[in-house]
Specification:
three-stranded antiparallel β-sheet; 10 helices; EC 4.1.1.65
């Protein structure tokens, strides 16, 4: 498995594609080589390592990285809210805003939308899933929530894992309308969330630093959102106002530089995921789709 390419299903082309991995050589060394794993344990998972890299990507001279990055990964500059020449640092480019029309929010009563651009896995019953990125590799809700009471409340619920690559739009949004509570920090390490790392140890997702927000909604009951930090993620920044009602697709916050992840959990029986997400996830293949596209429908409206 060590040299296996990362394959995902593209919702828009309806075909399997191979991911172009940012920093692939470093990731494979760090997570697939014994010497690399030693360095990972000693250095790369720790806060100061990522904080330093985040600082470096916020310096003015880092703007020299912007245009080569755009060219290498063939990013669509027509989506950017401002010219690629005007970003003052790589980090400013990294958490760029987009033109609203480039991420339309799916309409319809009882519709839930994807909270972020990225590669997505869904599990209609998280407790019954055979595995997440590979068969037999799971974490528990108790580990994820770091709270036994909340884990019981969401037992048997439906889970979405949205993995953001460095090439993706790095703002995250609310999947449904409702009233969000405070974002609570759960302290942890900063391992990579690339499949290269997660296929080796899915536990990185629950060992990493993350923020938990609980939403009260009319159609979907209580919804839990986690923003998971990762290696070289400078910070997780929340931009919403606690307790103020939000609309589906409204911005919640952003990640500074690095790959990262959003995990969304619905209570049992509250959502029916889109068929393409379910079909690909059943064979451990992520589906690429963009923020605002359909995630699923309220279970009471899906029949």
């Amino acid at each position: 498995m060590a040299a296996d390419p990362i394959r995902f299903y593209n919702r828009y082309t309806q075909a399997l594609e191979t991911e172009q991995i940012f920093g692939e050589r470093w990731l494979r060394f760090a997570y697939e080589n014994p010497m690399g794993r030693a360095g990972l344990w000693l250095l790369a998972r720790r806060k100061f390592f990522s904080a330093y890299y985040g600082w470096k990507m916020s310096r003015r001279r880092s703007q020299l990285r912007v245009l080569p990055f755009i060219a290498k990964y063939d990013l669509n500059v027509e989506e950017f809210a401002k010219s690629a020449f005007t970003y003052r640092s790589f980090n400013e480019f990294f958490y760029r805003t987009l033109k609203p029309e480039c991420r339309p929010i799916s309409e319809g009563a009882g519709v839930a939308v994807l909270p972020a651009d990225g590669r997505h896995l869904v599990f209609p019953d998280v407790d019954a899933a055979a595995g997440f990125y590979v068969k037999g590799a799971k974490f528990s809700l108790v580990e994820l929530f770091a709270d036994a009471s909340l884990a019981r409340e969401f037992s048997g619920g439906a889970m979405l894992i949205s993995r953001l690559c460095p090439v993706d739009y790095h703002r995250f949004h609310f999947p449904v309308s409702g009233s969000p509570g405070p974002a609570r920090l759960i302290k942890g390490w900063l391992y990579s969330v690339s499949p290269i790392a997660l296929r080796r140890n899915i536990g990185y997702l629950v060992q990493n630093k993350r923020m938990l927000t609980l939403m009260e909604t009319e159609a979907f009951g209580r919804v839990a959102m986690f923003e998971v930090g990762a290696t070289n993620v400078g910070s997780i920044r929340q931009s919403y106002v606690e307790g103020r009602a939000v609309a589906r697709g409204e911005e919640k916050g952003l990640f500074a530089f690095g790959g990262s992840c959003v995990i969304t959990i619905f209570q049992r029986g509250r959502i029916q995921f889109a068929p393409d997400l379910v079909a690909q996830s059943a064979v451990h293949i992520e589906t690429y789709a963009r923020m605002g596209d359909v995630l699923g429908t309220c279970a009471s409206r899906s029949t």
